[in-house]
Write a structure and sequence with these properties.
2 domains; 5 strands; alpha+beta; 144 residues; 5 helices; 49% helix; two-stranded antiparallel ribbon; three-stranded antiparallel sheet
């Protein structure tokens, strides 16, 4: 069985400014069970250059490295993720393509990925609301 490091894959990205997005997508895939991986103690520096608001210069961030099994399923996921990232424009500050009917129809955004993201966001908001309501109910606080 072959194993690879997340840091190796990040260095192979076509656009280094998207390395933070790729790491987030990768960690989400591990959490959801799409990729089998383990976290390492060591960290690696993301190739993305961050700029300070109102300040001079740039800085870098680090992420925890991971080791994953290089299976056809994981390689397919990585290829799809790289393809999805290549569809996103990297010009200017806000580099995300704004979802609209035109961008969905033209294929600039992955509709299925946006559906999953929307479901996750809605589920998260619903759970936060339920948690807030139940915590208020347990406390029994009443404002007059």
């Amino acid at each position: 069985m072959a194993y690879r490091k997340l840091s190796e894959i990040v260095m192979e990205l076509e656009h280094p400014q998207q390395s933070d997005r790729f790491v987030k997508m990768f960690r989400d895939a591990v959490r959801e069970g799409n990729i089998d991986a383990i976290e390492l103690k060591e960290r690696f520096t993301l190739p993305k250059q961050y700029k300070r608001r109102g300040g001079e210069g740039s800085y870098e961030r680090q992420a925890r490295d991971m080791v994953f099994e290089a299976t056809p399923k994981s390689e397919k996921w990585i290829g799809q993720a790289k393809d999805d990232l290549s569809k996103i424009s990297t010009r200017g500050g806000r580099s995300k393509v704004v979802p609209s009917l035109e961008t969905v129809e033209s294929g600039e955004v992955d509709f299925k990925a946006l559906v999953e993201e929307t479901r996750r966001n809605m589920e998260s908001k619903y759970n936060r609301g339920q948690q807030l309501g139940s915590s208020r109910k347990q406390r029994g606080t009443k404002k007059k």
